[in-house]
Design a protein that fits this description.
heterodimer, A: mainly alpha, Fumarate Reductase Iron-sulfur Protein, Chain B, domain 2, 2 domains, four-stranded parallel beta sheet, three-stranded parallel beta sheet, 49% helix, globular, B: mainly alpha, Fumarate Reductase Cytochrome B subunit
Amino acid sequence: MATAAFDTPKLKSYPVIPLVQAGAMSHLKPFVAAAPIQKAIGFPEQLVDDWQDKAIAKMGELLGKYRSLQVYMDACVHCGACSDKCHYFLGTGDPKNMPVARQDLMRKVYRRYFTFAGKYFPKLVGAVDLTREVLDEWYSYFNQCSECRRCSVFCPYGIDTAEVTMAAREIMDSVGMGQKYSNEIIGKVHRIGNNLGIPGPALENTLEGLEEDTKEDTGLDIKFPLNVKGAEVLLITPSADFFSEPHVESLIGYAKVFHAAGISWTLSSHASEAGNFGMFIGNYEQMRAISLRVREAALELGVKRIVVGECGHAWRVAYSFWNTLIGPFDYLDPRYPVPQHICELTDDLIQRGALQFDKEANDSRIITFHDSCNVARASRMGNLPGGQFVIPRRIITSVANHFHDMAPQTIHESTFCCGGGGGLLTDDLLELRVKGALPRMEALKGVVDEHGVNFMATICAICKAQFTKVLPYYGFNMSMVGGVHQLVSKAIRLGDK
Amino acid sequence: MSLLTITFAVVLSVAALVFALGVARKIRSYARTPAPLKIPTTPAPTSSAGVGWRMARELVFFESLFKSSKWTWIFGWTFHAALLLVLLRHARYFQEPVWLPVVLIQPFGTYAGFAMVAGLGGLWARRWLVDRVRYISTPSDHLMLALLLAIGLTGLGMRFVKHTDIVAVKAFMLGLPRLDWQPLPSDPVLLVHLALVALLMAIFPISKLLHAPGLFFSPTRNQADNAREQRHIAAWASALDKKA
């Protein structure tokens, strides 16, 4: 489908909060999942006849299952603290992209059906019936949230719009209104083992090709093992790392780290995916089923550690949810955190002096680091809070000489989403993706102008794919984005070279 | 006994009951609803003591609001802090003998009334002046501010413009819980003040004023960041493990 024409926002030298432009993004919605996609993952094939009753019943069920949803439906006071925090609002000016207004799309229905005030005084508290128009609005705007949690940092009650978006998507899925991109991918994971739908033999082939390429580059036999029983480490990485640029450069980086440190490792064709789109659609059962593949692979291969590659939402699910979903991990080596992030592993090796680098190899690059939203605000690395900010930067400055952070209000827990997270990395939402990247692009422009930055490192497959696509819209070169382990790969000393 | 006294005694008692029972019911439902996943907004404390400190900072300083909007913080924090002083000051109408801290707080509580009204004024101004906040404001948001402002202004009126018979009011209040109803002065400003307070108490459990208990139950704030160290699992989620 050709995307309708839209204007790329102009980059300003300082951030400006846009004026409210009602309806600016109301035309945009992703493709609805067709019947076979829905059927494959157990959702109704199309909007069911009694969708309204079913949706309200589902909402009631979720209110009883998730304290977050119940509290967040009640607690908002419309103070507006979040109103200028969402990158999609800042990029589009559409008021329904303000976190509070996005939540209110559900809250006004919640009030109507679940509260005294909304049942008897709907106008007073802004309560509405769940009509077809409201449902369509849900579909549009709950698919314009990347579940990045920036709003939750700034809300005085910690209200997290991601929780509301997940619940809304879960409700819509349950009445047959699924989102094509996410649900199709979930089907692929179950059927084939990864989001890209790469079958085992193709994966094997790709990895062999990588071994050959790396041998050509380094003269060394650096392995990319698949399904090796008894390996020390099972690496779970986003499938984009196998095929996409610049992702694959980081995969080569991981392999070199394992090689240099002498750690035996393996990938699994059964669990050849770190990403977990079950989280995007707020479906606990899907999230659990997808995660279970990792447990099965780890037990089957008899590994002692599980390490996760560069992937933001995946790391959230792995770090925050795996222990709940597929734990306990009592069959793994207790001396290592489970799961462990590849950056934690590399950083630990660097700190112990087990890796050596030629930092000059990265001298052509002036580097900045984009904190990926779900790593920054929904997980941790290392033992101390905030380790997720320290460790990747410490790796970068260990392997390269030129590093500059972007503006403080755009990094760490205040980082902006790339614009493509949470199940929105699809071309039918391109306009949203380009506009939502605006705050990050402005911050990037700041360090480009001031320090001549020419490389933005990040540790998320979605960030990498999204920036590769949208950087050119803002006049930047798409090859400016890459992984942290891409930098590691460039500078690491492999001994007998 | 006058009809007025009976009416107010009944209305205030019922409102107080609605408030207490309604909020208790809500708190019970929050406490009983499971939080199946670890979702603290990170960086988050890794221990429960750290979580206590984080919550205390939110409660006392409105830390997150401070990070997000200085104007809203100034008005909001001023209003809440002043409200606390005013409420403490009012405690003397409900106890005999009066507790020493309540005695000591009296002068501060008196002037906090002005700060409270100023804070409310600022918050209301934002609802008109900031286009984003104007967009999200519902009629009830405005009415809530009007209600609080009216309570504050009638209170200040009785303190600084025309005194009411406060000794009689105190006797009335002390009698309420014992069902020993004493005559309430028929001062119109007092009656408006009390009626609005009754309304505020009654709507508390069905309104956004639930943000007060809500803060304590917000999983993004009250969970420790220890997902890897401690397995966290809710009953309904653990049932899935058994099924499989």
